[in-house]
Specification:
Blueprint lengths: L1 H26 L12 H21 L7 H5 L5 H23 L11 H27 L3
Helix pairs in contact: 1-2, 1-5, 2-5, 4-5
Length: 141
């Protein structure tokens, strides 16, 4: 089980790095490191959410609702929690800016404005999965 958790955490870390790179490139009007395959970050986000949900369910089993978040991120260092909350907040801000900004067309399956709109969510999803999986790897059980 620990091997699957570590592999999933590594996939989440790679996805987070690629989503950050895609976001930075999209802010510059560039297609990003994955080019026409940027859409695969959707699949990766789904792929890391399944093991993260399994780990989260195991960690939160039989806990009262008020203690679940504390237990869920209990194995994470403080800096990782702050980074996660930063990505979650940034995802909301980025989405609001994306909705409020007029978009111009672009080349490829996912032009840079579209990548910018999605990448905030990708960063938050990958960061959350990484934090949960890291916490799960550090907890006993």
């Amino acid at each position: 089980m620990k091997t699957l958790v570590y592999c999933s955490a590594a996939l989440a870390a790679v996805g987070l790095a690629l989503s950050i790179a895609s976001h930075v490139e999209s802010l510059q009007g560039k297609p990003g490191p994955l080019g026409n395959y940027t859409w695969t970050l959707h699949l990766g986000a789904l792929a890391v959410c399944v093991p993260a949900a399994i780990v989260a369910r195991r960690i939160m089993r039989d806990l009262p609702h008020k203690d679940q978040w504390k237990a869920l991120l209990g194995g994470c260092p403080a800096w990782m929690k702050y980074v996660l909350f930063g990505f979650l907040g940034y995802a909301l801000l980025n989405f609001a800016i994306f909705i409020a900004t007029p978009h111009s067309g672009g080349a490829g399956l996912m032009p840079p404005p579209v990548v910018r709109g999605f990448s905030g969510h990708w960063m938050a999803i990958y960061a959350a999965a990484l934090a949960v999986l890291y916490s799960g790897a550090k907890t006993k059980g």
